[in-house]
TrEMBL record:
This is acylphosphatase. Belongs to the acylphosphatase family. It is an enzyme of class 3 (hydrolase). It holds the Pfam family Acylphosphatase. Gene3D superfamilies: 3.30.70.100. It catalyses: an acyl phosphate + H2O = a carboxylate + phosphate + H(+). Keywords: Hydrolase. Its EC number is 3.6.1.7. It comes from Sphingobium chlorophenolicum. Signal peptide: none annotated. GO terms for molecular function: acylphosphatase activity.
Amino acid sequence: MAVIARHLTILGRVQGVFYRNWAVERANSLGLAGWVRNRMDGSVEALVEGAEEAVEQFIALAHEGPPAAHVTRIDAAVVDVEGLASFQKRPTC
């Protein structure tokens, strides 16, 4: 099973709606590693790595997000796998 990594920029109403907590829960349930954080521009940024199918499933779910979110776009870039051990919420940057 191939391990892949994606850097995500999630746009829309994604701050103040528990998007990061939702992302941590979903990533953990899918067995993914990485991190998620708010950006000063109002977007959410994430690095997700793990089995290809699980990463793709996370991205598909991320288009919905938690109930109060309204995702308008997700930009996903292929990045190198870092070999992270867990999925964490990081401070805003």
